[in-house]
Amino acid sequence: MFSIGQLSTRTGVKVPTIRYYEEIGLLPAPERTGGNQRRYGVEGLQRLGFVKHARDLGFSIEAITKLLELQDHPDCTCAEAGDLAQAQLLAVQSKIARLNRLQAELQRLVAGCHGDGTTGECYVMASLADHDLCLDEH
Amino acid sequence: MFSIGQLSTRTGVKVPTIRYYEEIGLLPAPERTGGNQRRYGVEGLQRLGFVKHARDLGFSIEAITKLLELQDHPDCTCAEAGDLAQAQLLAVQSKIARLNRLQAELQRLVAGCHGDGTTGECYVMASLADHDLCLDEH
DNA sequence: CCTTGAACCTCTAGTCACTAGAGGTCGTAT
DNA sequence: ATACGACCTCTAGTGACTAGAGGTTCAAGG
Fold it and tell me: Measured between CB atoms, does A82 come within 8 Å of chain B?
């Protein structure tokens, strides 16, 4: 049996976050001691590990809820899990593309600034004020 | 003079968001008509354009507040603006690195799923449940 | 057995950057 | 004069937590 603190150190999920997950129904309410403290079994640890891992991969709580439902009904087809992962992959890829564009502009912006003038003639400020100075859309 | 709606269509910032920016002090309170409606001049339009552009580049409201202060005192050195842009660039780059790692794992995850089994034997589910199946840390 | 102190409990409120909705007023075109 | 869209304020909600107050329980050392 694990206390909530032990679960926290083992999974890397903070204690208030674990309680929050329970509150929103992502984790089932565990047993309690006579003094009303949470005690988790191995299955609680595993479920939280699953949640943590999926969160690290950027899955939303909503998506994780669906994944957990699939996990609880292991005879359902796995296509849906694949779809969720696929959607997550596309979201990640579009974020990367967008960030790459931002990176390019920020690099241009930083390169143009020598830190030796006043903001009145600063390329960073001018570029932020005037979108037309950007090379591409964002 | 522009109404809040005209400002919205010209900058692409939604009307409630403009009011929100005013509320938190990012935009100065504009003039009002006799009937209490906001009327903006060109400088209001420009300031909102600046904010929009910086937000699109991922600057936090806090950072934008600083940038606007710098803009309002154009005789200060621009080094600080450069620092903010530099910090933003580093943040973007680390996000990109992280997302690239996630992308790799998600691709592996999606590739391993053929959508023809049950979740009991699904690679997606197994991989999410067991972090040890990951190739690298995240 | 007793005490100490860290870990636990609940509850409320705050974070960021908005977004949604209710219920009412204003401006402008016909 | 009358529509009707755009505007106003205010409150509350979003996601995914985080922080703090104020109180209780557990486990280890004496």
Answer: yes
- Give residue-wise pLDDT tens across range B36-56: 999 999 999 999 998 998 888
Whether residues A99 and A71 fall in one domain: no
> Has residue B32 been placed in a domain?
yes
In a shared domain, residues B98 and B48: no
Instruction: Judge if ipTM > 0.90.
Output: no
- Provide the shortest C-alpha distance from residue B31 to chain A (in Å): 22
In sign, the C-alpha dihedral spanning B111, A63, B59, B20 is: positive
Determine the structural domain holding residue A112 and report its residue range: 80-133
Q: How far is the CA of B67 from the C1' of D10 (A)?
A: 31
| Residue B138 counted as domain residue | no
| Interface check B58 vs A, CB under 8 A | yes
For the stretch B116-125, pLDDT in tens is: 666 656 666 7
Is the Cβ pair B92, A75 closer than 8 Å?
no
Q: What is A22-79 written as a DSSP string?
A: HHTTSS---EE-TTS-EEB-HHHHHHHHHHHHHHHTT--HHHHHHHHHHHHSTTSBTH
Q: Which residues of A touch B76 (CB under 8 A)?
A: 118-119
State whether B76 and A138 contact (CB < 8 Å): no
